[in-house]
């Protein structure tokens, strides 16, 4: 049974092959090979990740089937993913492939006018610039291939479509400068002998270097610090960059909208507000302002390459540097240093006491423990010893204590002077977490901006706590200057980017301090989602950076802000109250100690007087008794 099956299957395959050859007797093997090699060469030229073969769904000829089979087998041998789709499947699955496959090569075979119409229906329903295209026109469709009178396939400016006319070795690229027309350029030469030979070494946007006077609709933000759009032509850094792009790419622009905000997502309406909203609704082609790139915005609009990177910071009015700094006298050393100093003093006291007990130059007084301790502190306070020892070990010990005291006092004096004389701002917090826990400052951000969205939608615990300190939305500033003014007038922290603060720093009415947020914003212009101009604008922006044009434009636009002279206010009583208070406390403590010493001295003197009087009385009594005894003896002798 197995033997008969093994003999039957090869015979059946041979018969099917002969039958197939009879059906397509007019199809030469070289034609199949030509198509296979052509598609393979184009896939390697574009470095496409996969190949998707498109054919008419009602075409069940052996020619199409055999060609698809050969192409699929060819790419399978090269470990390149390939599959076949008809036009109906392509319509249903196009968006699915867009999100899951990295730029495949779509190969389309157009054998008749009906297939051209079918392909037109597919391309009109969706934007086709996502994949690479290879469109192969058969003999009946050569007129359209050589002379495209209209934009048949919804080709855009950034579409990479390679076209092959039957029997012609020239491969052409189709793209559109205007919606109703096709621009055609010879791209490469292909034949079986030389294979694919490009006719130019220029990149995509070096070949497509002009927009041929296309008019782009612009949306701006009224109070953007980087673009002035109130009156007359646009000015500012972003406007200068836009004008340079306009000159390079040959396009004009019309300011269609001047929005009051950058835009946030409104969950109640399900849409965007401000400048982002105009782009999301395709009311304009380009948004010109310093839009912050976020993941949520990228779902609705395209961003150019970052024109600048800027740190996000929390700005507050600089506190008065002359305020009382009670902790300054203890901040000279850390807690560990203070503990080590006290430990060293106690250890030195014990060592000195033990040495005096061993040496015994003179009788040890009963209060020698306290005397040694006070002697050590006297050395640290630059006081002399009541009696300098004669023993060399004791002298070396006291000299070592003196040297360490001089070093510690010099360090302490230098640090203390810097703390007291340098007017540095003192905030009750040093990071965002401490700011949220402190709760003494309110928080604001630019209304309807990515900065506000950061706090409103964040799942970070610290940002959630900070959101509770945010003012109500109607009280949030509508301009950057209004935000900085609020920060100057009240205990309010304004969350903004460093680039914005630097741009308008000359107009800010107070000195500001800031906390680092640890976040960096990418600021750039915006375009409609999947805009056909995103690629070419990004190409030229990168080129501006590479050749130094971007730096030249920045230097032309940025104002050179000369630092203002520091005006120091005269020191009043409040500024020296700390020193006066310390002196006063020292005087009071000294008087108390003096009074205590006087009282102790008088008490001690009284006790000595009483003891002396008692001794005298006893001596008088003894003397008196002796005299009486002597007189009695004399009387007896008589």
Automatic annotation (TrEMBL):
Pfam families: Lig_chan (PF00060), Lig_chan-Glu_bd (PF10613). Residues 1-20 form the signal peptide. InterPro entries: Glu/Gly-bd (IPR019594), Insect_Ionotropic_Sensory_Rcpt (IPR052192), Iontro_rcpt_C (IPR001320). The lineage of its organism: Eukaryota, Metazoa, Ecdysozoa, Arthropoda, Hexapoda. GO terms for cellular component: plasma membrane. This is Uncharacterized protein. Keywords: Cell membrane, Glycoprotein, Ion channel, Ion transport, Ligand-gated ion channel, Membrane, Receptor, Signal, Transmembrane, Transmembrane helix, Transport. GO terms for molecular function: ligand-gated monoatomic ion channel activity. GO terms for biological process: detection of stimulus involved in sensory perception. The chain crosses the membrane at residues 338-359, 396-422, 576-601. Residues 215-312 form the Ionotropic glutamate receptor L-glutamate and glycine-binding domain. It comes from Nasonia vitripennis. It is found in: Cell membrane.
């Amino acid at each position: 049974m197995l033997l008969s099956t093994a003999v039957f299957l090869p015979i059946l395959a041979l018969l099917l092959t002969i039958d197939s050859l009879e059906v397509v007797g007019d199809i030469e093997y070289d034609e199949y090979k030509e198509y296979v090699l052509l598609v393979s060469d184009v896939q390697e030229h574009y470095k496409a990740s996969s190949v998707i073969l498109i054919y008419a769904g009602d075409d069940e000829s052996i020619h199409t089937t055999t060609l698809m089979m050969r192409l699929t087998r060819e790419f399978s041998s090269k470990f390149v993913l390939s599959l076949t789709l008809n036009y109906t499947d392509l319509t249903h699955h196009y968006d699915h492939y867009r999100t899951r496959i990295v730029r495949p090569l779509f190969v389309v075979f157009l054998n008749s006018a009906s297939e051209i119409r079918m392909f037109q229906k597919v391309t009109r329903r969706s934007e086709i610039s996502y994949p690479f295209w290879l469109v192969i026109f058969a003999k009946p469709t050569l007129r359209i291939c050589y002379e495209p009178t209209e934009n048949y396939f919804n080709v855009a400016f950034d579409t990479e479509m390679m076209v092959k006319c039957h029997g012609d070795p020239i491969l052409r690229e189709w793209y559109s400068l205007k919606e109703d027309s096709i621009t055609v350029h010879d791209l490469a030469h292909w034949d079986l002998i030389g294979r694919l030979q490009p006719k130019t070494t220029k990149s995509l946007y070096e070949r497509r270097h002009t927009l041929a006077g296309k008019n782009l609709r612009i949306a701006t933000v009224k109070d953007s610090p980087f673009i002035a759009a109130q009156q007359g032509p646009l000015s500012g850094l972003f406007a200068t960059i836009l004008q340079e792009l306009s000159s390079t790419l040959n396009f004009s622009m019309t300011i269609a909208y001047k929005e009051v905000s950058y835009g946030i997502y409104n969950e109640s309406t399900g849409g965007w507000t401000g400048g982002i909203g105009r782009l999301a609704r395709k009311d304009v082609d380009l948004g010109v302002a310093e839009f912050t790139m976020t993941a949520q915005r990228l779902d609705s609009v395209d961003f150019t390459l970052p024109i600048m990177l800027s740190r996000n910071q929390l700005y507050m009015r600089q506190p008065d540097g002359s305020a009382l700094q009670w902790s300054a006298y203890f901040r000279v050393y850390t807690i560990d240093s203070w503990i080590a100093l006290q430990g060293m003093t106690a250890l030195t006291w014990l060592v000195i006491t033990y040495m005096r007990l061993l040496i015994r130059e003179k009788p040890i007084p009963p209060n020698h423990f306290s005397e040694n301790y006070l002697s050590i502190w006297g050395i640290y306070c630059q006081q002399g010893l009541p009696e300098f020892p004669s023993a060399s070990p004791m002298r070396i010990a006291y000299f070592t204590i003196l040297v360490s005291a001089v070093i510690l006092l010099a360090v302490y004096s230098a640090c203390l002077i810097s703390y007291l004389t340098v007017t540095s701002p003192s905030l009750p917090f040093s990071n965002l977490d401490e700011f949220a826990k402190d709760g003494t400052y309110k928080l604001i951000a630019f209304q309807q901006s990515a900065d506000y969205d950061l706090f409103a939608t964040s799942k970070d615990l610290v940002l959630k706590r900070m959101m509770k300190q945010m003012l109500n939305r109607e009280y949030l500033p509508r301009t950057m200057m209004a935000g900085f003014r609020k920060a100057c007038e009240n205990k309010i922290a304004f969350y903004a980017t460093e680039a914005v603060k630097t741009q308008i720093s000359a107009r800010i009415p107070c000195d500001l301090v800031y906390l680092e947020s640890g976040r960096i914003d990418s600021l750039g212009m915006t375009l409609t989602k999947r805009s056909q101009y995103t690629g070419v604008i990004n190409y030229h922006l990168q080129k501006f950076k590479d050749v130094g044009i971007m730096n030249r434009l920045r230097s032309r636009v940025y104002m050179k802000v000369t630092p203002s002279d520091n005006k120091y206010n005269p020191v009043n009583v409040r500024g020296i109250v700390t020193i006066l208070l310390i002196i006063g406390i020292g005087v009071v403590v000294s008087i108390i100690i003096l009074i205590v010493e006087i009282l102790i001295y008088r008490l001690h003197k009284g006790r000595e007087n009483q003891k002396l009087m008692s001794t005298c009385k006893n001596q008088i009594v003894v003397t008196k008794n002796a005299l009486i005894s002597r007189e009695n003896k004399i009387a007896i002798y008589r």
